[in-house]
Fold:
Amino acid sequence: MRLSTVILPIHRWGEGQKVWQRAEDLGFHAAYTYDHLSWRTFRDGPWFGAVPTLTAAAMATQSMRLGTLVTSPNFRHPVTLAKDLITLDDVSDGRITLGIGAGGTGFDATALGQDPWTSRERADRFGEFVPLLDRLLTEDSVSYEGDFYSAHEARNIPGCVQRPRLPFAVAATGPRGLKLTARHGQAWVTTGDPRLFESGTPEQSVHAIRGQAEKLADACAAIGRDTAGIDKILLTGFTPDRGRPLESLGAFVDFAGRHQELGFTDIVIHWPIPDSDFAADEKVFEQIAMEAPTQLR
Structure:
C-alpha cells in the first residue's frame, strides 16, 4: 500500500515550498492539491491556484508524484486544461496524475456567474468532459462538437511525457462515474459514503466502500477490463473515522489495513493544518509517513 498526502494551496510559496519538499523527504508516494477557486471553511483565507502551485512543486521536488485531487468541470474547459496538463507533465518530467471528478455545489459552482448545476447536469457534463480530455491528451489535433464542450483543431503537440497520456484518477461512486472510471481511469478515488459522515460508524463506512468497489468491478467486467489494473485511492478525512486515524501510528495502521483488505492500493492523508478540520500532531503525522508503509506491506 502506498501512502500519499494532500497539501491545501493555502501557503505563500516561501512557506509552501518547504511543505512540498518536506513531503518528498518523508517518502510520500505522491502529493496532491485541491483544484478549487475557494473551498469550504478556507473561503475567506489564502487560497492559491492548483496549476501554478503544482508547477512550482514540480520545480522544488525530484521524484515524488504530483497531482490534483480533484479537478472538475465546474470552472475548467477540456481544451485549456489539456494544455496546462501537458505543460505540467513536461515540467515535472512525467510525474503528474490528474485526479478528476464531476464537481459539486460548493463555491466553484457559481464563481463564474452561472447557476449551480444539478447532479444530473454535472454527470452529463462529466460524461462529455472526460472522453474529450482523453482525446486532447493523446491526439495531436482534435475537433469536437458536443452538447457542452467544443474543440476546433485544438493542437496539443508534443503531448504528454507519460504515454499515451498522464494517468487519470477518477473520483466516482455513481453508476455513470464508475463507467467512466472503467473506460478511462488508471485509478479510482473515493472518500467513502458522505451520508455516513455525521452519524455513521467506521464499520458501516467499510461496508459502504466495499459496495462501491464491487460496483466498480461490475463496471469493469461489463467492458472486459480487469479491475485489478485500476489503482484504488482512498482520500481520508471524510469517513466517520474523521481524524482518529492520525492520532497514533497504531490507529492509522489499523485504519489503513481495513481498507487494504478491500483492495485499496493508496491512502491519502491531509497535511496537518492547525485550527482546522485537518489539525493533527505533526510528530505523529511524520511518524505515520515514515513507518506506516513498511507495516502495511
User: Anything to note?
Assistant: Residues 143 and 153 are 5 Å apart (CA to CA). The chain has a mean pLDDT of 97. The chain has eight helices and ten strands.
